[in-house]
Design brief:
The chain is of the alpha/beta class. The chain is 38% helix and 17% strand. The strands form 2 sheets. Strands 1-4-5-6-7-8-9-10 form an 8-stranded mixed sheet. The longest helix has 14 residues, at 47-60. The two termini are 25 Å apart.
Length: 292
């Protein structure tokens, strides 16, 4: 029914939810590890087309209760335009309880606190934020366009607005040389900035960005193997003492080992699972089943 502009990406938890492309591409689109929107030019989709898609979907799925706004960062849209989209969704879907979208640290920080609260009141109540790393060195090497401080400020602002935040960390980003710095910086960030959910992904470089990633990293980069990534996961979980408990997941298809729990309550159980995997007692996801 929808004329989706491919490729289309969404978080694992949005798999059963209705997706509307409010924007195409990513407004930043310079992260060296990310191939998701390299083939697209960032733009807001015309309101008339989006409005028509919402109205068509309402006729087919009137009981829809959750919506994801694609592509890379719908939060880049002006607040008044976002509010117009949200109001249309509220009108079209009486059972609507949640609207979510990807967000970048810069786009969060460009919104004032009153703007974020206004968006939440119109049911935009979950943002997906790619932290990637809490280490300024790693953030610079992957051209994230953010610092640990700016990411923390964005997370704080979302928390105060009472919007839920799902943050992602990419294991393996520091390679074999900087893995401890990568993890220790990430622990420091998560111990001072609140999140509702935290998920870990495992670094996977598509062939289309492999050369760019290696060049921007600025020095030889040795990929972590599964054991190295498991040691990173263990170091991360061991160091976490967050300001508020959060739900932890490593259920993304890129991960060698799927984990689920709440931090800090389930820390020891998760660490035990990792230790078992390192000792050969835990089944890892076969490499041919992994990907983005």
């Amino acid at each position: 029914m929808f004329d989706y502009h491919m490729p289309l990406y969404r978080p694992p938890s949005e798999g059963r939810n209705l997706i509307f492309q409010a924007t195409l591409g990513c407004s930043f689109n310079q992260c060296s590890f990310c191939s998701m929107y390299k083939s697209k030019r960032y733009q807001a989709r015309p309101w008339e087309i989006l409005q028509g898609e919402i109205d068509q979907a309402a006729q087919l799925w009137p009981d829809t209760d959750r919506v994801f706004l694609a592509d890379g960062d719908a939060l880049a849209l002006p607040t008044d335009h976002l509010v117009k989209i949200l109001q249309r969704l509220e009108s079209a879907f009486p059972e609507l309880t949640r609207v979510s979208c990807y967000a970048t640290p810069a786009n969060i920080r460009r919104k004032s606190l009153p703007e974020l609260i206004q968006l939440r009141r119109h049911r935009l109540n979950l943002l997906y934020l790619g932290i990637e790393s809490g280490s300024d060195l790693i953030l610079k090497k992957i051209t994230k366009g953010a610092t640990s401080r700016s990411i923390g400020e964005a997370m704080d602002q979302v928390f105060v607005s009472e919007i839920k935040l799902s943050a992602t960390v990419i294991l393996g980003l520091g390679g074999q040389k900087y893995w401890q710095e990568h993890i220790d910086g990430t622990v420091d960030l998560l111990n001072r900035a609140p999140a509702t959910y935290v998920s870990t992904l495992q670094l996977y470089l598509e062939p289309s960005v492999f050369t760019e990633f290696m060049k921007k990293f600025g020095e030889p980069f040795e990929l972590q193997d599964d054991r190295g990534v498991l040691h990173e996961q263990a170091r991360l979980l061991s160091g976490l003492a967050p300001p508020h408990p959060f739900v932890f997941r490593s259920n993304h298809a890129s991960n060698a080992l799927a984990l689920a729990g709440t931090i800090p309550k389930d820390r020891e159980r998760l660490l035990k699972t990792i230790r078992s995997a390192l000792e050969g007692d835990g089944a890892l996801r076969p490499s041919y089943l992994r990907g983005l």
